[in-house]
Amino acid sequence: CGGIIPGFSQSAGMGLMCAQWLTTGEMEYDMFPWDLARFGHWADKKFTRAKVRDQYTHRFAIHFPNEERAAGRPCRTRPVYEAQKAMGAVFGLNYGWEHPQWFAGAPGAEDTNGFTRQNWWGPVGEECKMLRARAGIIDISNFAKYRCKGPGAEAWLNAVFANNMPKSIGRSCLTPLISVRGGIAGDATVTRTGDDEFWIVSSGMAERYHKRFFDAVPLPDGTVFESHTVAMCGFNVAGPKSREMLQRLTNTSLATADFPFMRSAQIELAGVKCLALRVSFTGDLGWELHCATTDQAQLYAALLEVGKEFGAGPVGARALMSMRVEKGYGSWSREYSPEYFPHEVGLERLCKMDKDFLNKSAAEAALKNPPREKLVLLHLDQADVTASNADATGGEPIFKDGKGIGRVTSGTYGYSVGMSLALGFVKGAGPGDEVEVMVLGQPHKARILRDPPFDPKGEKLRA
Fold first, then answer.
1. Any bridge partners for residue 376, and if so which?
2. What is the largest distance, in Å, between two alpha-carbon atoms of the chain?
3. Domain 144-227 carries which CATH code?
4. What is the pTM assigned to this prediction?
5. φ and ψ at 207, to 5 degrees?
């Protein structure tokens, strides 16, 4: 680490991290924000020059939550980029891709930046309410997508991931990927699409990082594992009207009896071949639809057109963030990271200790100890957030009886439940306890929830 100020302030910590990396194979803290794996081949000289110039120009500027920087962009776009732009999409950068954060309704809108609620707060709320009341169409092309095929596919995936792989064609499972120290290196949805073929969906920004773990387990002869993130795109259509809406575009029955939760099928939708998975990060009734990139524009146009009949429309990433927190779902790099062990984030039941998998011994050792802290969902006092005009965003300290007990990892307003919410880690506190979250340096009263406020029993998800 060079330079006078960074050298003095960071060199000792970085030295410790490097020493741990060399001696144990992994650092105790999540260092992904410093990891070169954040960048792929798309980060060429032009992009790098623009980003370096921007970084030095803004080195001493004040930075804000959800801030998106324009340098070097657009870098990578998909076929529907111009259509989304015409609908007023305000984009963010996700592993080089332009990805819609929210929709302003007309082109030309830009984020305002600050620590309080900004110009996107209201439109994001309308997107959430639309989806929860009717349906919404979310571009999930930024997710990493892989195909594993061959006679050794099932055995290899079982050796990589902690959960057991689906046995029946059309079934899916959620599985952790365990880090060297036994933490959560990643999480993935794995679907069996054939006798010897699987479809894997995971974090897009972690694709290069996760390759280190995939490469750690040799592939059996005749078996391939390849990324389809560029070749395939995806949409999540979710909400109470999503089934009725999609049924207009396909002859495949989407009834619960024929297409239950966590199942998949190859279907044709508006003339486009799709892999349909009945899952949704919104926590609502919904389907993920994965199609060839060359078909993305056709599928998007069909979804938007049929959506008009149901009062459905496009939904961005910030609305998805709000809805997944309403459901209490964690996200990679926030709640799920190598820093946290499976039983600290509620994923221990997905670690099948009766089989071998990558870094099993480390997970086994971690699980023998009590959790250092636990992931919880908090409801911030309405009067306090109204007075500050701010929600938690991540990094805010959590106090109980004047003592620091944890920190926020994700924060948002839950528009469909009318609650300012935060996910975070705490120790010495549990459901029902009253705590304080320091938002903008001021204490905001909060209560640890026992259940997520949206669909706590999963009835809508499985409807």
1. 424
2. 66
3. 3.30.70.1400
4. 0.95
5. -60, -50
